């Protein structure tokens, strides 16, 4: 299992948001995380990349790391093994698409310029943005920016992709294009956990569903 939580509780700002939750994520599968605003979806995802410490738990393993006693110096290595797709893009506005992606690769240990150029070309082609490397973020549409964010998440070939409302700021047509891209990643061996309010996706793009409700995590 890529993720294995057993009786885990999560606090946010001094309040318990999830209590005694248990779930697993297997390899090469698509998962949804649904629930009302404030139900704990983002907190659960943030806990998985150690942005929020766990309050308690019997087991909390993510990609080979024990989150119950993870050391601060090990957190960057955990995050290198996953890709994170944010709703609000979080691209560096003063850098081109190429520079945004090269920045991530250099920060995660890539040193060879030819290797960096080759990987960026590969991943931009994969997300349908092969001819956009010279563009600045403000020159791209919302859907194009989100494709770049997905490319950034995929750079280091992570097993696990966490996508927090990745279509929330997009129009319906563009949102479906992004969903098609994310759902297709499973065929490439990735596991995707996606938080969403768009329940129509659950019918159109099959996956297992977890719901945050009343501080619990329910499998639907």
How many DSSP H or I helices? 7
Question: What share of residues are in beta strands?
Answer: 25-35%
* Overall average residue pLDDT: 94
Please identify the oligomeric state.
single chain
Structure description:
This protein is 32% helix and 27% strand. The strands form 2 sheets. Strands 7-8-9-3-10-11 form a 6-stranded mixed sheet. The chain starts with a strand and ends with a strand. The protein contains 7 helices and 11 strands. α4 packs across α5 (142-154) and α5 runs parallel beside α6. By secondary structure, the protein is α/β, with parallel strands linked by helices. It has helices at residues 41-48, 75-80, 97-107, 113-126, 142-154, 172-184, 200-204, and strands at 3-12, 15-25, 30-34, 54-56, 59-62, 65-66, 82-85, 160-164, 191-195, 208-213, 216-219.
């Amino acid at each position: 299992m890529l993720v294995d939580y057993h009786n885990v509780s999560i606090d946010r700002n001094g309040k318990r948001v999830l209590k005694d939750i248990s779930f697993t994520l297997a390899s090469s599968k698509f998962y949804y995380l649904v629930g009302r605003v404030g139900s704990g979806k983002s907190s659960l995802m943030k806990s998985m990349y150690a942005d929020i410490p766990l309050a308690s738990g019997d087991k909390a393993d993510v990609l080979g790391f024990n989150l119950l006693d993870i050391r601060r110096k090990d957190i960057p290595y955990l995050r290198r093994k996953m890709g994170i797709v944010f709703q609000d893009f979080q691209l560096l506005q003063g850098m081109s698409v190429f520079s945004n992606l090269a920045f991530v690769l250099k920060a995660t240990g890539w040193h060879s310029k030819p290797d960096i150029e080759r990987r960026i070309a590969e991943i931009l082609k994969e997300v349908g943005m092969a001819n956009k490397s010279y563009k600045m973020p403000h020159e791209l549409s919302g859907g194009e920016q989100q494709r770049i964010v997905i490319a950034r998440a995929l750079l280091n070939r992570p097993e696990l992709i966490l996508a927090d409302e990745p279509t929330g700021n997009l129009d319906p047509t563009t949102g479906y294009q992004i969903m098609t891209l994310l759902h297709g990643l499973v065929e490439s061996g990735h596991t995707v956990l996606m938080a969403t309010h768009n329940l129509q996706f659950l019918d159109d793009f099959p996956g297992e569903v977890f719901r945050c409700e009343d501080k619990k995590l329910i499998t639907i």
